[in-house]
Amino acid sequence: MTTFRVSQGLGLLVSFIVSIFTRSLVTSLYVALPLHVLGFLGLILTSNELTSRQRSQHRDNARQHSPTTSDSREHSDYHNIGGDA
């Protein structure tokens, strides 16, 4: 998200400076357009990275809370107190 905002800010700044020196608004728009597109792509990449981090954290949390084989045996023995065991 920060990369997106920085790229947009740089795009606006560079386009403003270019429009002052060239005295052409069209040229400044052509300069700002690629920087805005790069900022948007940065936003997409940041979003994908955050999503993958959340998925990996969710998987890690699920692994930590899943019972191990010894825990499951103890759990099954607890419920079979009056059974065949």
Question: Can you describe what's shown?
Answer:
With 85 residues, the chain is mainly α. The chain has three helices and no strands. Helix 1 runs antiparallel to helix 2 (25-65). It is rod-shaped and about 90 Å long. The chain crosses the membrane at residues 12-45. Keywords: Membrane, Transmembrane, Transmembrane helix. Residues 52-85 are annotated as: Disordered.
Radius of gyration from the CA trace?
28 Å
N-end to C-end Cα span: 58 Å
pLDDT averaged over residues? 72
Number of strands: 0
Q: What letter string, H or E per element, gives the SSE order? A: HHH
Strand content: under 5%
> What are the low-pLDDT stretches, counting only 5+ consecutive residues below 50?
none
Sheet with most strands? none
User: Can you tell me the overall shape?
Assistant: rod-shaped
Number of discrete helical segments? 3
> How much helix, percentage-wise, in residues?
over 70%
SS-based structural class? mainly alpha
